[in-house]
Amino acid sequence: MRRGCSALVIFGVLLGVAVALGGLRPAPLKAVETYERKCSSCHGKEGAMLERDFEKKYASVSELREVVESMPGAIGMRSEELDVMVAYMRAISRGEPFLVWTERRTDALEGEVSPNAATVVATAKRQSLKVTRPAANRWRVELPKGTKLEDVEITARRGAERTTLRLRESPHSHTR
Ligand code: HEC
């Protein structure tokens, strides 16, 4: 009985540690870079040759997903990677900026934004965070000590269109 109890306690502690370490994770695909490399030859830079609102031609989310999955550059993509690419396609269809978080560094987060003309700002609990652009489609957000990932919100703006990514909800925008 006693042994059973302590095993249960140890299991509980391990589970707690796993949950604490697991936390929030970056997306498994650099969708913007992958798109430029594998898709832009047919669909234009940042989706320039895709029709506005093309997603409306598809009756369901799974239909759009199937089309993307059937594209030459998507062969071999894992399901979680495809999720990110489909999200990016939705953003293009809607003419809205797309945001994805792709890397966790010790004191910063990095990710992608499309179109590259969009401006990017970030906050944690209404405190603004320093954002730099290491490359045209990339952003880097500095994290002061003690900043919780759950509190980080990144906003991209292009003209009247604006997209906010809340890391506590998802590592990329346009999940639906
Ligand atoms: C060799 C050219 C080619 C490449 C490379 C390619 N596509 Fe396509 N794509 C097409 C053609 C042709 C269509 C239209 C025919 C169809 O629906 O199957 C299409 C249709 C689409 C559509 C639907 C557009 C609409 O108006 O309904 C999306 C979304 C799309 N592609 C995304 C992608 C993505 C993402 C990639 C890269 C992973 C990619 N494509 C790579 C040729 C290409």
Global Rg: 19 Å
Bound molecules: heme C
Shape: globular
Strands, count: 8
Beta strand %: 25-35%
End-to-end separation in angstroms reads 49 Å
Total helical segments:
5
* Sheet/helix structural class: alpha+beta
Low-confidence stretches: 14-21
H-E order: HHHHHEEEEEEEE
What's the quick description here?
The chain is an alpha+beta fold and about 180 residues long.
Structure notes:
The chain contains five helices and eight strands, in the order H-H-H-H-H-E-E-E-E-E-E-E-E. It has one domain (25-166). The termini are far apart. With 176 residues, the protein is of the alpha+beta class. The chain has helices at 2-22, 31-38, 40-43, 61-69, 79-94, and strands at 98-104, 108-114, 119-124, 127-129, 131-135, 138-142, 152-158, 161-166. Helix 4 (61-69) crosses helix 5. The strands form two sheets. It has a four-stranded antiparallel sheet. The protein has a four-stranded antiparallel sheet with strand order 4-3-7-8, with no helix packed on it. Residues 14-21 have low confidence and may be disordered. A hairpin with a 2-residue loop joins strand 5 (131-135) and strand 6. The longest helix is centred in the first third of the chain and has 21 residues, at 2-22. Bound molecules: heme C. Heme C (HEC) binds at residues 35, 38-39, 41-43, 50-51, 54, 57, 67-68, 71-74, 85, 89.
